[in-house]
UniProtKB/TrEMBL annotation, chains A, B:
Domain (HTH lacI-type) ranges: 44-98
InterPro entries for this protein: HTH_LacI (IPR000843), LacI/GalR-like_sensor (IPR046335), Lambda_DNA-bd_dom_sf (IPR010982), Peripla_BP_I (IPR028082)
Protein name, per record: LacI family transcriptional regulator
Origin: domain of life: Bacteria
One annotated GO molecular function: transcription cis-regulatory region binding
Record field: compositional bias (Low complexity): 26-37
Alphabetically ordered keywords of this record: DNA-binding, Transcription, Transcription regulation
Calcium keyword on record: no
Segment forming the signal sequence: none
Basic and acidic residues composition-biased segments: 1-25
Span list, region Disordered: 1-44, 352-382
PROSITE patterns attached to this UniProt entry: HTH_LACI_1 (PS00356), HTH_LACI_2 (PS50932)
Length: 382, 382
DNA sequence: ATCACACATGGGAGCGCTCCCACCGTACCC
DNA sequence: GGGTACGGTGGGAGCGCTCCCATGTGTGAT
């Protein structure tokens, strides 16, 4: 708005004044600066800070960037000047000069994707945001479109717009990860696409969570435990199935494929799978669903079939979403530390993009793979 | 597997070095540039495009920015060069030179805030993202911290880091909006803070939604309709209460304060309010809750009290969240067009930040206030 | 006292872009 | 014929910062 035409007469001391009393900005047109800022609408520049502190540009830059090569008194003087002028570095200039962006992109799949649903999204974002906030990095949200868009996206991301990329809920056949890897941008993926995920990744212990859930069912005396799994091409889904199998095997149960039904992570899928299961094994007394949504579907079918939960059939879900908490009866579910995964992803990508400080050569032991523990939240359904 | 282990020796200056020549892409794991790009790892610059097309820098810039002052053949030549080189403008440089950011910030309150819960967050983000994608603007996610942080935040946002700010779920006493308004950054708020919201805003028709819900209850033959409202300092909550009152008044019911209970938008609050209501008016036959979460709480209390839903008491919520869909029975709820609100917000800031061609057209009719219609989604609970 | 070698510091040279002004033609006017 | 207008174009001058080299100014060793 008010153009940059304004002739500014650097008026440094306004600082304190503005802060303490300036609120009187009755003149609606006049942007009462939130912090002291020499009038003229323009934010102070590094050069102005330097002049104000009586030092050179380079010194101010050093102070801002935390270089140790500045004497204590000088640093103090510069910091005072910065505070007084309410100086805030111009990101664009910094990015241009330093050839970095101070920003991390979180690429989210299209809205229809399962990921976008609760609770995943907000928690991941929350975790990522938290970790990033500590470092002054910015969080860019980017939406991956179709195949063509993805190519363009990789290109854009590569064009020095971000220092790192966070990928979530990526399907195994998505070209984006490889496109990105090709550009050399540090990339971290949440949810491995396979056991041999080539990208640094953060995942939750799907197998362990499933195993714990089933073990819990067994400890409650359940004998015929079925499972509703997601499409097995989804690595996480197959891990959950593995966990289910392992728990049963550990308890001495013989493998029984008739207790396994594959669905697609939707409620309708859950209903259908439950019907199948009931038809095949009418005597089942417990069901472990690989997601809360599928559990919700299963619950409906069970009800319709006259089975009481948990009296006749115990039910456990996965995700510990709001649905689980509000279901009737409340659903026992495997909680994934989503927010923590977000934090971990952010930290991982930061370390990749980071200075690679001397002495932290990271033994070339392949990509970093983090697997975070899950937790069984026991509620009324089991 | 050890794909990215290519981390070179800790060599501080690598950055600069790499840009000029190095990283010849010949080593590492086949970079396979997404698009043709002059080798050397460096992204082509505008200058290179100009040379390639045999024109001047200015002309290329004009083409990129869609200036009409370029002849057709020249434009074609430039576009060909751009495509051939796989040129992508450097955002930082552009931002620096043009003094704009090409980015909009979405400021979200802290995670504990109600807002962060489903379904608000993802839908808003989705809508905003969609609208922004069309314009090539970036979406920055920022987290508002405590009071002090907010001051800092306003400062940062003002320091030319974004062209506009989107505020969501702002409490009436939050200083951030005013801080921002003071800096002159285009700001749009979702959910007016009062009837006289000074900021451009996008809101849903809370009163209308509530009125429709209650009218629906009346049409179903309910006579004693109670309501559980949120804290009335929250403008939206008081609007919903107004809608409730209006519907009743329109049906000729006399105002009855004993049918109104105030809660705090939490499940526990809903339970407590329902208990109150039941104690005061045991004969009530319907409840309109100002949020699904409170409705969930109310439902529990009703159940515990032996009331059947909807046979004895009809229940309606607000938000149409996943909770509503999965409740038992499924909850009738007032849907807000959240995603559309996100889109509207984005478009609004864009128009504020936008060209603002010569002078300041904008018929100075006060801040833009958009109120989007709500919709009653009828389910089993009513 | 001299030399060497740290440090601390100042400031030039860009980073890649937009802005804007000068300049070129060509079409049109008197 | 010589203006007068332009639409089209090239390129200088920065935008505010980081880098890095050159230049002081202390200290210790000789």
């Amino acid at each position: 708005m008010t153009a940059r035409t304004a002739r500014e007469a650097p008026e440094p001391r306004t600082a304190r004044a503005a802060r303490t009393d300036r609120t009187a900005g009755t003149d609606r047109t006049a942007p009462a600066a939130p912090a002291a800022r020499s009038r003229g609408g323009k934010a102070p520049t590094l050069e102005e800070v330097a002049a104000h502190a009586g030092v050179g540009r380079g010194t101010v830059s050093r102070v801002i960037n935390g270089s140790p090569r500045v004497s204590a008194p000088t640093r103090a003087a510069v910091e005072a000047a910065i505070a007084e002028l309410g100086y805030v570095p111009n990101r664009a200039a910094r990015a241009l000069a330093a050839n970095r962006a101070d920003a991390i992109a979180l690429v989210v799949p299209e809205p229809e994707a399962r990921f976008f649903a609760e609770p995943y999204f907000s928690d991941i974002v929350s975790g990522v945001g938290e970790a990033l906030a500590e470092t002054g990095m910015q969080l860019l949200l980017t939406f991956a479109g179709g195949a063509r868009e993805r190519r363009r996206l990789a290109q854009y991301l590569a064009a020095h717009r971000v220092d790192g990329v966070l990928l979530v809920s990526v399907r195994a056949d998505d070209p984006l990860p490889d496109l990105l890897a090709g550009t050399g941008i540090p990339t971290v993926i949440s949810g491995r696409r396979s056991a041999a995920e080539p990208l640094p990744s953060v995942d939750s212990d799907n197998a362990g969570g499933a195993r714990t859930a089933v073990a819990h069912l067994l400890s409650r005396g359940r004998r015929t435990i079925a499972t509703i799994t997601g499409r097995l091409e989804v690595y996480g889904a197959s891990c959950r199935l593995d966990g289910y199998r392992r728990a049963l095997a550990e308890a001495g149960h013989a493998p029984d494929e008739s207790l396994i039904a594959v669905a697609d992570f939707t409620e309708e899928g859950g209903r259908r799978a439950m019907r199948e299961l009931l038809a095949r094994r009418p005597a089942l007394d417990a069901v472990f669903a690989a997601s809360d949504v599928m559990a919700a579907g299963a619950r409906q079918t069970l009800r319709a079939a006259g089975r009481r939960i948990p009296d006749d059939v115990a039910l456990i879900g996965f995700d510990d979403s709001a649905i689980a908490r509000h279901m009737d009866p409340p659903l026992t579910s495997v909680r994934q530390p989503i927010e923590e995964m977000g934090r971990a992803m952010a930290r991982l990508v930061l370390s990749e993009a980071g200075p690679t400080p001397p002495g932290k050569p990271e033994p070339g032991a392949g990509p970093q793979q983090l697997v975070l523990p899950t937790e069984l939240v026991v509620r009324g359904s089991s």
